[in-house]
Amino acid sequence: MSTLNKTISKLIKKNISISVAESCTGGLISYNITKYSGVSKIFSGGIICYSNKAKIKYLSVPRKTLLKYGAVSSNVAEAMINGLYDNEKTQICVSTTGIAGPDGGTKNKPVGLVFIGIKFNKKNFIYKKFYKGNRLEIQRKAKEFIFKTIEKLI
């Protein structure tokens, strides 16, 4: 059984609710959750907040935070899960923000940099990851990390 399958099964069995706010993964996390039958019992929904404007509008990410730290930052990943929690009140909230490439990287924020936020039982966990590969590989590696981490938390 795959980690994804184990994690989803565990979430359903334990009746642990989850919601996601995705930027760099563009819906990949939501898609992978909704592949499973019975997930409607625990999956509240997913928001793809790709632009800064969407992060502000749908997740109440402070404009000051975006300007000071940039969209790809631990601060924004945390603001995203906090905004998601305010909207959804799920036991688990997940956020992704990063640079999946092939363009958009800088010296300080290279392609492959991803910040992942996971709120579980009102406690925030923020992860800074560097992934190698093409755009889809970076997105998939972030997804795999998220489901492995959730499985450990629950």
Please outline the helices and strands.
Layout: H1 3-13, E1 18-22, H2 28-34, E2 43-48, H3 52-59, H4 63-69, H5 74-88, E3 92-98, E4 113-120, E5 123-130, H6 135-153
Parallel strand pairs: 1-2, 1-3
Antiparallel strand pairs: 3-4, 4-5
Describe the structure.
Helices cover 44% and strands 22% of the residues. Strands 2-1-3-4-5 form a 5-stranded mixed beta sheet, sandwiched between helices. The chain is built from 6 helices and 5 strands; from the N terminus they run αβαβαααβββα. The protein starts with a helix and ends with a helix. It has helices at 3-13, 28-34, 52-59, 63-69, 74-88, 135-153, and strands at 18-22, 43-48, 92-98, 113-120, 123-130. It has a single domain, classed as Maf protein, CATH 3.90.950. It has 154 residues and is an alpha/beta fold. The longest helix has 19 residues, at 135-153. The model has no long low-confidence stretch (mean pLDDT 97).
